[in-house]
Design goal:
Layout (H helix, E strand, L loop, with lengths): L6 E3 L16 E6 L9 H18 L3 E4 L14 H11 L4 E4 L2 E2 L5 H14 L6 E4 L4 H6 L7 H17 L3 E4 L4 E5 L13 E4 L3 H10 L2 E5 L5 H17 L11 E3 L1 E9 L3 H30 L15 H7 L2 E4 L1 H14 L3 E5 L5 H19 L7
Parallel strand pairs: 1-11, 2-3, 2-14, 3-4, 5-6, 6-9, 9-10, 10-12, 12-13, 12-14
Antiparallel strand pairs: 7-8
Helix pairs in contact: 1-2, 1-11, 2-3, 3-5, 6-7, 10-11
């Protein structure tokens, strides 16, 4: 039996930077760069950087951006490394995280170089999220066969870890053959930044645990009981893992972050008015996209239960993990996620105006996060 690599996370509580508080569940935010009514991608990118700065000032734990290609007018965050580099220099405390890098679309050495440089620019505040992607259109546009996306992601992770942790690396894999090279810069975080695996299906939650990676899960299009089972499946796989499947050089991370739809305003009615139409449209698109991915990959995962959320904001708010309404409403939703056993809640705040986003971020940071910080440690 292989020796287990060291662990960061719930048991050792080594997942905190020295300047962080001891909140048992942290509150972050995320964006996919929804353009909105003005239809100006350049303007939206500048707004994202400004929103990250306000999230930093408000005291939120993390700011994430997902890699989204070819979805205009809904998203403009394809070049997330460029946007994150700008955010790194405009912020000073907040954790920045790609949510996630779709590594099959890139060469892993390039990914390693770019995100190490972002960690340098952020003075060690970068955490890394990796995933296969969930849109067949994107993989096919980049010339990547959809069935290859998961094995490519696993191999990419292996290469990236070696690039970050070894003075010189060489590699002979299924998809990459690399002669000896020295990759610089190295990340500030040593031996490497925290690494999370994006999971949407029950099986991919188990994969994250088996590999010893942190988990990026989501509440979009699923019910509360499904979220509970998926978190439990990850924890069980993490605890059962022998280390045999852990990539060489990885420090295992026992940590769950959940991405949820949400918007914070002065009241539930105002939150619904500002962002409700966007969220309904986003959920509709997501359900359709996952169904396409299942057909392309031949997966047996069923999204039948997700269809009840289509065109129904009440169902989305009440029956799926989400965070809508006044600060008090958001605290109540966060408590349900705390009870699921998650370590971080990331609110996907797209869909309102830039000014409404800024107010949402201030309310989350100033009125919601401090309440979460007072809750007791689970263990």
């Amino acid at each position: 039996m292989a020796a287990r690599p060291p662990v960061r996370g719930r048991a050792a509580r080594a997942d905190r930077r020295p300047d962080e508080g001891g909140a048992p569940v942290k509150l972050g935010v995320a964006t996919q760069g929804f353009v909105g009514g003005h239809g100006d991608p350049a303007r939206r990118i500048r707004e994202i950087v400004a929103e990250a700065a306000v999230a930093d000032e408000a005291g939120l734990h993390s700011f994430s951006i997902s890699e989204q290609h070819f979805k205009f007018p809904t998203n403009v965050t394809g070049p997330i490394d460029v946007i994150m580099a700008a955010i790194a220099r405009e912020t000073s405390r907040i954790v920045i995280r790609p949510g996630v890098v779709i590594t099959p679309l890139h060469h892993p050495l390039n990914v390693a170089e770019r995100w190490a440089a972002i960690d340098v620019l952020a003075d060690g505040r970068m955490e890394f999220g990796i995933g296969r992607g969930n849109t067949p259109l994107t993989a096919e546009a980049f010339g990547v066969p959809v069935p290859e996306t998961e094995p490519r992601t696993l191999e990419d992770l292996d290469v990236i870890l070696r690039a970050w942790t070894r003075p010189v690396l060489s590699y002979d894999g299924r998809f990459h053959t690399i002669a000896p090279v020295a990759v610089v810069p190295k990340p500030v975080n040593r031996p490497h930044p925290m690494i999370y695996w994006a999971a949407t299906s029950p099986g991919s939650h188990a994969t994250a645990g088996r590999l010893g990676l942190g988990l990026l899960t989501g509440g979009n299009g699923i019910h509360w009981d499904q979220a509970e089972r998926r978190v439990a499946r990850y924890r069980e796989a993490f605890e059962a893992a022998t280390g045999a499947d852990t990539p060489p050089g990885l420090v295992r991370l026992d940590r769950v972050a959940i991405l949820v739809n949400g918007h914070c305003a002065e009241s539930m009615a105002e939150a619904r008015r500002q962002a409700g139409d966007y969220v309904v449209g986003y959920v509709n698109r997501t359900v359709e996209m996952y169904e396409q991915m299942v057909r392309k990959t031949g997966s047996s995962v069923s999204f039948d239960r997700a269809r009840v959320f289509k065109d129904d904001l009440d169902m989305i708010i009440n029956e799926s993990p989400s965070m809508f309404g006044s600060p008090a409403d958001c605290v109540a939703a966060a408590r349900r996620m705390y009870d699921l056993g998650v370590d971080e809640v990331d609110v996907l705040f797209d869909g309102a105006t830039h000014e409404q986003h800024l107010e949402c971020l201030r309310l989350l940071g100033k009125e919601v996060a401090p309440v979460l910080a007072e809750w007791p440690e689970r263990r």
